[in-house]
Amino acid sequence: MPLMLDVEDVALMEKWLDPSFREVENFKDILKPKIIMPIKVTKIGRPSNWDPIDDSFVIRVDA
Predict the structure, then answer these.
(1) Cα dihedral 2→8→12→17 (10° resolution)
(2) What percent of the chain has pLDDT over 70?
(3) Residue 4 resides in a domain
(4) I need a labelling partner for 59 at 20 to 30 A (CA). Which of 4, 12, 34, 41 fits?
């Protein structure tokens, strides 16, 4: 599961991108595997071609 940050949360983004920020406990909630926004996925054949081989579907937000 990739880390997905809310880019509209300016304070979070500033902390995440600040190399001098050391209070990592502030990130404990975002480091849990959780879907925070719907994701549309499509199975593809070869990554070099990006040819869909199945219907797309949506992974819903975790409650």
Answers:
(1) 70
(2) 98
(3) no
(4) 12
48 belongs to a structural domain: yes
Enter the DSSP assignment of 27.
G
Please check whether residue 36 is in contact with residue 29, taking contact to mean a CB–CB distance below 8 angstroms: no
Tell me what pLDDT residue 15 has: 94
State pLDDT tens for residues 5-30: 888 999 999 999 999 999 989 899 88
Q: What is the DSSP letter of 19?
A: T
3-state secondary structure of 44: strand
How many folded domains does the chain comprise?
A: 1
Query: Would you say how long the chain is, in residues?
Result: 63
Domain that holds residue 39: 10-59
Residue 39 included in any domain: yes
